[in-house]
Structures are given as C-alpha cells and as structure tokens.
Amino acid sequence: MTTPTIHATTVLGIIHNGEIVIGADGQATMGATVAKSNVRKVRKLMDGKVVAGFAGATADAFTLLEKFEEKLNAYGGNLRRGAIELAKEWRTDRYLRHLEAMIIAANANEMLIISGSGDVLEPDKQVASIGSGSMYAQAAALALKAHAPHLTAEEMVKEALTIAADICIYTNHNFIIEKVK
C-alpha cells in the first residue's frame, strides 16, 4: 500500500524550549471548492495529556483518532506504543487500511507522525508537518527555530501556519492551536 497524498490542510507541531504545540488551519476542501472554513483538526485526547492533529479525509481521521485513543488507553497513555499499535492495525486491518489520513500526536515528552503505511516517525529538528501546506509551514518553522529562538512554540506555530496559509490555496487563516499539558 502506498501512502495517500494528503491535500487540503496544514497541520504543524513544534517542540521548542520544553513546550509542545500542535496547530492546524480550518479549511475543508472538496475538489476546488472550500466546503467549510472552520474545521477543528486538532484534538486533545486523554484529558489533554495528548494532542493530535490530522490531515486527510475528515471522517477517516475521526475514526483513526478514536482508534488511537483506544490504543492510548490500552497501553496506559504510552504515546509511542499506542502509535505503533495504531499504525500496525491501520496497515493490516481490511477496513482501516482504506482510510486516508495522517496524524501528528504529542505528549509532554515526544511528538510523532503516524501514517497508514505503518510509519511512526519522530520528526527531525522537533518540527512535524502534514498536509498540502506542510512543506511551507515546515520551512517557516525551521527558519523561526533557527533565527527567532526567543519566540514561544505557540508563536512559531501561528507564524509558520500564517506563512503557509499565505502561499497554499488549501490552507486558510482560521487556526486552532493546542498546547500539550
């Protein structure tokens, strides 16, 4: 199975100065039409101890987030173990393997990118991005980390998403940004 190309959103996570933040825009696109401008693509799980953002088909992502929370609960909140178990089931389950989405998940200690092809990746340089505007947001975030280290992680996420939204037609300026407790 190949990883689907995820369009129509931007999700960005940054770890900076001990703070972990994930943010996303709010645009849902159907083809070349904006269907909704304020979709909440970042969710708190496990009473706020885990934050997850998704890119891809919304119904698919909600199904996967529910499965992910089940895995987190089954493994005592262990993010890495829950992510690995989700990725294994997502890749092998006859129903789940057809779901098209990607997830960035973080707790107070780490951030991971989870895909349906079985990938559980720890991002380089503590910046994770998924979605159609992800490369714009990632480039901006890396520049901010290198040249504006006085900014908070939340400020970096907001500024990088703003840059992505200014460039990517599938990304808007309606941001939801969540910090990990």
Automatic annotation (TrEMBL):
Database matches in InterPro entries: ATP-dep_Prtase_HsIV_su, Ntn_hydrolases_N, Proteasome_sua/b, Proteasome_suB-type
Keyword set, alphabetical order: Allosteric enzyme, Cytoplasm, Hydrolase, Metal-binding, Protease, Sodium, Threonine protease
Top-level enzyme category: hydrolase
Regulation acting on activity, per entry: Allosterically activated by HslU binding.
Molecular-function GO terms, alphabetical: metal ion binding; threonine-type endopeptidase activity
Catalytic activity, as annotated: ATP-dependent cleavage of peptide bonds with broad specificity
Function summary: Protease subunit of a proteasome-like degradation complex believed to be a general protein degrading machinery.
Name recorded for this polypeptide: ATP-dependent protease subunit HslV
Provenance organism: Thermoflexibacter ruber
